[in-house]
Write a structure and sequence with these properties.
Distance between the termini: 23 Å
Structural class: alpha+beta
Number of strands: 4
Order of helices and strands: HEEHHEEHHHHHHH
Radius of gyration: 23 Å
Strand content: 5-15%
Length: 317
């Protein structure tokens, strides 16, 4: 819980022959502010006009894909940039390869990300918190949700997303078996095999790489909180680890792009910049001793107010 900001004292007007102007009343600050709610409100509304590339929820260019359990799912138009770049770079390999790329980076990848984000959303709802919406964009998906009940709840929400890749991998494994059993299903077998590799890669990348804001970084922060580490110290470790990993990814992406000539390495560079930007914000707050103002560590403070039974991290799952 943040401390309320002090209200400004009223100024006493000096006596003069003119009629004094009315003094505006200062707004009262709420003692129990919800950082996650403020973040969602800031993401969802803005007084400034949004650009085409903005990830704000009031971006008029967002495509509404549908609603699942009253959770709106929106698609950012730049999602098709990845599809276009991949298709153009694959023209030299023939039309069949282009068709494979369009299917994998189109409906297959889109559906995989939706299921991944729904894993986060359903676990959040199961724990009694609210989910605002899901946004899909070229670097993955964003599930805007409220506070989970304590660090154990945060850990469950973080793991729930990557865990969805396990049943999806088995689903595509069954499709692969059916395709190999039938005649003339070679292309379908190739799609299914690549979809299996895609799910294995996304599960490992998100869960095993402790780089905030990836799920692995959230898992790391939750585990440090469960172990009783001081929040600012946990924030420094979480953000510092993410920065080191992001610099490594950026270096590899630059090498692969300009030395190895792999055009897909630009996505690795963008992911690295995305991690650097978010982890740097977390690091600055941790150094300033204000890490509880960050949504990653503000969840626990909110949960202790909303869920008194989960006030201790040693309460277990």
């Amino acid at each position: 819980c943040r401390r309320p900001l002090p209200t400004k004292a009223k100024r006493t007007p000096r006596p003069s022959g003119k009629r004094p102007l009315p003094i505006k009343q200062t707004e009262k600050t709420e003692p129990n502010r919800d950082p996650m709610a403020e973040r969602n409100a800031a993401v969802g509304s803005s007084s400034h006009p949004t650009s085409f590339f903005s990830t704000s929820l009031d971006n008029p260019y967002l495509l509404h894909l549908g609603t699942v359990r009253e959770i709106p799912i929106r698609l950012h138009p730049t999602f098709f940039v990845l599809l276009g770049i991949s298709a153009l770079t694959g023209l030299a390999n023939g039309l069949e390869f282009v068709a494979l790329v369009c299917i994998l980076y189109g409906p297959v990848l889109l559906g995989t990300i939706v299921v991944h984000e729904l894993g986060h959303a359903f676990m959040t709802l199961h724990l009694g918190s609210a989910v605002d919406s899901i946004l899909l964009w070229p670097l993955g998906g964003l599930c805007l949700c409220g506070a989970a009940p304590g660090s154990w709840g945060d850990l469950k929400v973080a793991v729930a997303g990557p865990a969805t890749h396990i049943p999806m991998a088995f689903f595509w494994w069954a499709i692969l078996g059916l395709a190999e059993a039938g005649d003339g299903w070679r292309f379908g077998a190739i799609v299914a095999l690549n979809a299996i590799f895609m799910n294995v890669y996304l599960c490992a990348f998100n869960l095993l790489l402790p780089a905030y804001p990836l799920d692995g970084g959230r898992v790391m922060a939750a585990v440090l909180s469960i172990r009783g580490m001081e929040p600012n110290k946990a924030g420094k470790i979480t953000s510092g680890t993410a920065i080191v990993i992001a610099l490594g990814l950026l270096a590899y992406g630059i090498w692969a792009l300009f030395v190895a000539g792999d055009p897909h390495a630009i996505m690795c560079c963008l992911v690295a910049v995305f991690i650097l930007q978010n982890s740097k914000q977390l690091y600055d707050l941790a150094v300033a001793g204000r890490v509880t103002e960050h949504p990653l560590f503000a969840r626990e403070a909110q949960a202790r107010q909303a869920y008194p039974l989960f006030g201790k991290d040693d309460s277990g799952p």
